[in-house]
Write a structure and sequence with these properties.
Order of helices and strands: HHEEEHEHEEHEEE
Number of helices: 5
Helix content: 10-25%
Structural class: alpha+beta
Strand content: 25-35%
Number of strands: 9
């Protein structure tokens, strides 16, 4: 009799456990919203987003700064040019979420607007294309979790001769070349800010990069490609707030 009762209880317990396992799990409205938000973030930043751009570089005159002065008498003797000269300093703030990232490469794309150049040599300016394009890659290593900065600079002579930055693009990749983050901001008509896909950004658009100047009778380009964009570690700006930056691979 005790054996039969034990068997009955065992069957009842097994049936209850099976029913409990098979019962549908109800999801509350808050849980659904949380899942939807997480899915949206995953779709936008990728399932393993490890880098986020927190602050984009400034455009136009807001990107120009006087060269830093450290005081003291120069060992080189007399100062030959006492006039203040402005650098173009492009700086972005970004956040990383992994404990350590071995390598991050920042690819910069910059367009300067010729008509904003400060030189008084109007004859030379008239012979130049409306825009000048600069690009540079900078690779940082051993990036710990937290907030960091990345920056590139153009010597004052570029601001004086070629103008202010009116479009800036950044692409961040890891050591394998995978794109982790990127964006573009522009004040130029025909060049979109915040493209949905970086493949559609201005530096990847042949129609923009190879466009002809409509005001030219000789089919001259709208954009001229130039060299000179430097990582800040190769300029005097390397001495300013050095702890905000990680080690650059030379």
């Amino acid at each position: 009799m005790n054996i039969k009762k034990s068997m009955v209880f065992a069957v009842v317990a097994l049936t209850a456990a099976s029913a409990l396992h098979a019962a549908p799990v109800r999801t509350t409205g808050k849980q659904k919203n949380a899942k939807a938000a997480a899915a949206a973030v995953e779709e936008e930043e990728g399932p393993t987003a490890s880098v986020k751009i927190e602050l984009f570089p400034k455009l136009g005159r807001n990107s120009t700064l006087n060269a830093p002065s450290f005081g003291g008498e120069s060992s080189m003797g007399q100062v030959w040019n006492g006039k203040p000269r402005k650098w173009i300093v492009l700086e972005t703030k970004y956040q990383t979420y992994d404990r350590v990232i071995d390598q991050l490469t920042f690819e910069w794309h910059v367009l300067l607007d010729t008509k904003t150049a400060t030189t008084k040599d109007k004859e030379t300016l008239a012979k130049r294309a409306p825009y000048s394009y600069f690009t540079q890659r900078v690779t940082y290593v051993n990036i710990p979790k937290g907030f960091h900065a990345a920056s590139v600079c153009l010597h004052p002579s570029y601001y004086e001769q070629y103008g202010e930055p009116k479009a800036i693009g950044i692409v961040i990749t890891d050591g394998s070349g995978k794109v982790l983050a990127g964006d573009c901001e522009s004040e130029i008509t025909g060049i979109d800010s915040h493209p949905k896909k970086l493949e559609a950004a201005f530096w990847n658009d042949d129609k923009i990069m190879n466009a002809k100047n409509p005001k030219s009778t000789d089919g001259e380009p709208m954009i001229e490609r130039r060299q000179g964009l430097q990582d800040r570690s190769k300029t005097i700006w390397a001495l300013v707030n050095p702890n905000d930056y990680e080690l650059v691979v030379q």
